Amino acid sequence: MRILFVDLNNIIHLCRTPNLDSSVINGGWGSVQQFYIILNSYLKKFQPDSVVIADDGYSRWRREKYPNYKKNRIKSPDQIEPIMLEYERNAKEIKKSLHLFPFHYLKCNNLEADDLIYLGVKNSLETDEKIVLSGDYDLTQVLKFANTIQFHPIKKINLPIPEYDIVRYKCLVGDSSDNIKGIHLIGPVKAKKILVSSKTFNEWYQNLDSDNQELYQKMKDIIDLERIPEEYINEYNHMINEEQKKRIVYDENAILDYCEEKNINRFNIQIHRKLYQNLN
């Protein structure tokens, strides 16, 4: 079986319209149209037997470990530009519309899309072909699993297995997109020198003061996808069990009506028909 795992918000971010005028020209649903055009192009490219759409939960446990986690993304309403409000309206519409299509839409309160995709890939059969559609380099952690690729939708390439331990690297240099600062005075060049071998890393780590060792371990807890707390893995497993019991209702006319309503062009209904047949 070939399974396509889609990092939903990562793809939605590619669909932002450049300005309000272009969104109005597209009936106010420019990002919705772009999302389904992009998704359909990858369904055609990869021809999956199953599609898993992973959405972000809140991940409270990461914020408890590291209080500044993603705080840079929190803005008051008066700080949000009108084009971003329009984008958020489109994003909500995309998520609301996914039930029309023969996809597995997954969302857990305490897990992010990265967590859901990692657990999904990890729990798949070794013989399954796993394709992860995301530009998030944290997700290169999945590449250690057999028959797995990660396709970067902007660079249009399969991401290579990093030449260094990606978890250790992120703990050293931090991740500005998640508001993780990293270890003081460690940049990309120095980090790669430290990560040349386990010996050089261990020597560096042993020379760290206790505060920085504690900081490093906190960062590892939130970055390393193998460290998802057991209670949230159980939450994931329960969600998957419930998802497997569901009977996905497929109404082709409803899909075509939705595409006409939102002016979604270049839509290949045959791909969705095949996906539904695979689910049954």
Write a concise synopsis of the structure shown.
With 280 residues, the protein is an alpha/beta fold. The chain has helices at residues 8-12, 20-25, 30-46, 60-65, 82-97, 113-123, 166-173, 188-194, 198-206, 210-223, 230-245, 252-261, 269-279, and strands spanning 2-7, 50-54, 104-106, 129-133, 148-152, 157-158.
* Portion of residues within helices: 40-55%
- Unreliably modeled segments: none
Q: What spatial order of strands do you see in the largest sheet?
A: 3-2-1-4-5-6
Count, helices: 13
If you had to describe this structure to a student in words, what would you say it looks like?
This protein has 280 residues and is α/β, with parallel strands linked by helices. Helices cover 49% and strands 9% of the residues. Strand 5 (148-152) and strand 6 form a beta hairpin. Helix 7 (166-173) crosses helix 10. The longest helix has 17 residues, at 30-46. The model has no long low-confidence stretch (mean pLDDT 88).
